[in-house]
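Consider the following input, taken from an annotated entry for Rhamnulokinase (Liquorilactobacillus cacaonum DSM 21116).
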Amino acid sequence: MSKTYVAVDIGASSGRLMLAELVEKKLSLREIHRFKNGFVHNKGHDRWDIDKLIEEILIGLGKIKKAGYDSVVLGIDTWAVDYVLVDQKGDKLQDSISYRDNRTHESIEKLTTSLSKKYIYQKTGIQFLDFNTLYQLFEEDKELLAKTDKIMMIPDYIGFILTGKAVTEVTNASTTQMLSLREGLFDNNLLKSVNVRQSQFPKLVEAGTILGNVSQKLVKKYNLPQTEVVTVATHDTASAVIGTPALGQRWAYLSSGTWSLIGAELNTPENGEQAFEQNYTNEWGAYGTYRFLKNIMGLWIIQNIKKELSNQYSFADLADLAKREPPFQQFIDVNAARFQNPENMIAELQAYCRETKQKVPETPGELAMAVYSNLSLYYASELSILDDILGYHIDSLNIVGGGSNVDLMNQLTATVSDVDVYAGPSEATAIGNIVVQMITKGDILNIYLARQIISESFEINKFVPEREKYPNILDDYKKFLKNEKYRGG
Ligand code: LFR
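Applying the prediction step yields:
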């Protein structure tokens, strides 16, 4: 039997501690503690409560000790791009601002008057998203930046509070849009453009390195097990791709959570003209890989609808109600900026349909079906863009994350994209976090074996395309997206 491993996996809407063991080449996973996450408007900005997240981690670890575990290994992953400014004493200078805050809405335009978009893309290979760390730092309070000793990405900061050791892990650091693909270091021109220095970042480390032990002070105070922290692929999407079983010959992944991240795993970055035009990213992965992908708005839209319906319906209820409605009643550019953080998601979707003179979804089922069918169309259109850029045909899509539980969307996606869909595991992020720990500690040999173990340990459902059902729908949708007038700003 292996050591006992713990994944701390925190997304934008919830966090969890999962306990894992490897018994006879089967990975078992058990949820120990789950908690809510979300930003709140405070002191002029949408902010995360990182102290609260750390408290929840300590509560979860306390439960593990109570369950009889005296010693564990632990890894932390969270969403990307956001950071904590830390002073010389190791104290944080403010509550971290969320990437959904509207302070960066015009920052790409502003910053690229001095450094061209081409320069930034050739250097970094990272997609232009206005919330990338680069633009957040551009808008950061200059006085605070002057007092900043270290800029730490969120999971690195959590690791620092637990162990006292500070690093900058690269899978997450690449999402800053400041790492140079060629040199493997922060690019000085990019740093200069936002008034920060290399020395303000703790040293860069690869995924799969040992960070240190949770301090004895915390162990005693909270009655925790002895805990060794491994720096895993700390970006949740990086962990999710590691936790993807890689089924099919030429496979793509879709990490389906608050965001939908669709793309391929590459061994060399692809930052040519076409990738630039299509705004594809080359985020750094573990074990020398690149996550060539695009961000799509994802279940965030459904999460907001659910909230606005006063949480009367669960996600499963919404999927059941959607199933009773016909799909493709209207086309929606689900990636339009207006859906990033609207005051009211339902009103925004309805306004979009009205403005584009299409059927307005009204009931919970109609709303959910409108989102699911358009997400599946958006996925399909990205898969054909991926085919074009990569120069080969992707034949299967591995959907992982919470969204892989929505059979309706899995089937629609298989049908409109005409590829086989493998759905599951839904906990790929925690699994990816765990297997990097296991490889680091020698319980699994390498990522190939890890993926084999994953595919044999968890339920994975296959969906095959029902080709005859909607033969022209994808072409019609692509035409719709091309028509600027309908894209919705
Ligand atoms: C997914 C994710 C995406 C990143 C977005 C913002 O949880 O990490 O990969 O683009 O959140 O950090």
